[in-house]
Amino acid sequence: MSAKWIEFLTGSLEEKKSYKQAQARIDALPEPHRAVAKALQRYVLYTCAPEDGQTLTTMLSDFADLWEGAVADGSSTSDVVGNDPVEFAEMFAATYTGKRWIDKERSRLVA
Fold first, then answer.
1. What's the pTM value of the predicted model, to 2 decimals?
2. How would you label 76-110 residue by residue, b for 16+ Cβ within 10 Å and e otherwise?
3. What is the DSSP letter of 6?
4. In Å, how far from its chain's centre is CA 76?
């Protein structure tokens, strides 16, 4: 019963666990991949983050998969990101549909 109350107040515990696992995977990347991945993740979370927790955890898990694959393949960070890291981050985030956090904030300003 207490777990349901905690989830009611804080959100899904499973989503929080998945988020922390994806974050740990990104933290475990070797440099310079870790630094670039963290910078892109920070940008995506500030500007393009989905409002839905399940979509967010899926996006971050896929993001970790992408960077782990790049390390395993020996790809450089510029091979992954290309010439425009902002465009890369926004295109990556755009593949995950749903309402974004920024949409909620825009609605607050208009109301």
1. 0.80
2. ebeebbeeebeebbeebbeebeeebbeeeeeeeee
3. H
4. 20
